[in-house]
Amino acid sequence: MVKLAKEQNRYCPYCKKHTLQVLKEDSKGKSNVLNKRFRHRQANIEKGYGSFPYEDPSHRSRGRKSPTSKKRNFHYTCKECGKSNKPREAMRAGKLEIA
Ligand SMILES: [Zn+2]
User: Fold this and answer.
1) Are 30 and 78 in contact (CB under 8 A)?
2) Which of 21, 26, 47, 79 could cross-link to 73 by cystine, CB 3.0-4.6 Å?
């Protein structure tokens, strides 16, 4: 369990100084059924290409356990200028609590 403060005093690249910023987790995007990558993958699943790709992504690594944590995407919104910025690297966590 990772607990993060909802309001943090962080550097804002737009104001170029430390300001109070509100943390918000990004919503999960829908998979685009019509996009080329999705159709290509779906065709490979139906036709079969060796043992890849797996329909269920957790079967990707055989012999190994499927990961218990996942990448969390969130962004900070500056209270002074209203612009939002993202941290450079996505954080990995099983459970994320914003308080
Ligand atoms: Zn700002």
Assistant:
1) no
2) 26
Distance between Cα 28 and ligand 1 center (Å): 25
Q: Can you give the CATH number for the domain in which 55 is found?
A: 3.10.450.80
Mean pLDDT by 10 residues, the chain (99 residues): 92 95 85 83 79 66 73 92 91 88
The helix (run of H) or strand (run of E) holding residue 34 is: none
The residue range of the domain holding 19 is 2-98
* Number of domains within the chain: 1
pTM: 0.65
